[in-house]
Amino acid sequence: MKNYLMLVFAFVILSACQNEMKIGYVDNVKLVNEYQEKKDIETNLKGKIAQYEKRRDSLGQAFQLEIREAESKASKMAPADLQKLQQEFQQKEQILTQRLQFEQGQITQESRTLNDTLKNKVIKFVKNYGEKNGYNYILGSNEGGSVMFGEEKNDLTQVILDALNDDYKK
């Protein structure tokens, strides 16, 4: 009985060793940068940044105009009124700065959230692709060199990118 179990165990081990591992790799940078959803997100964020910059510049110009008008009147003001005016402008500047920092922070946070969501979506897609197509491993290459060399036939970047973009179009 022991010999029979050992023979079965040896057979299982040998057959497991006979199975060829199916391994592929993707260029992470190319996969993400050429993914249409990322391009759309970037376009959307660039539009929001442009709107923010336009609003910032407009508010800044209006504030500078208000300062110039106040400076022309300042020479005719009493010292107490001048001090009060300076305090008002300091408060306005502080409020304006806080408002602009808040808006900029919102855009930054939205960018981070969208990029994290996108990254997770791509990882999940690659995982599902690997499972559906019988891959044991799909490695990611990047500028840091996690895959230093891979045979061209194992490069799945374009195949997965096309599938990812097709899925996004739906």
How widely separated are the two ends?
Answer: 58 Å
| Sequence of secondary-structure elements | HEHHHEH
Helix content: over 70%
| Average pLDDT reading | 87
State the low-pLDDT regions, or none: none
Query: What is the overall shape?
Result: rod-shaped
Count of DSSP strands? 2
> How many helices?
5
* Sheet with most strands: strand arrangement: 1-2
Question: How much of the polypeptide forms β-strand, as a percent range?
Answer: 5-15%
Largest beta-sheet details? 2 strands, parallel
Structural class: mainly alpha
How does this model look, in words?
The protein is mostly helical and 170 residues long. The protein is built from five helices and two strands, in the order αβαααβα. It has a two-stranded parallel ribbon with strand order 1-2. Helix 3 (36-74) packs antiparallel against helix 4 (79-132). It is rod-shaped.
List keywords for this structure.
170 residues, mainly alpha, two-stranded parallel sheet, 2 strands, 76% helix
Please give a quick description of this structure.
This protein has 170 residues and is mainly alpha-helical. It is built from five helices and two strands. Strands 1-2 form a two-stranded parallel ribbon.
List the helices and strands and how they pair.
Elements: H1 2-18, E1 23-27, H2 28-33, H3 36-74, H4 79-132, E2 137-141, H5 157-169
Parallel strand pairs: 1-2
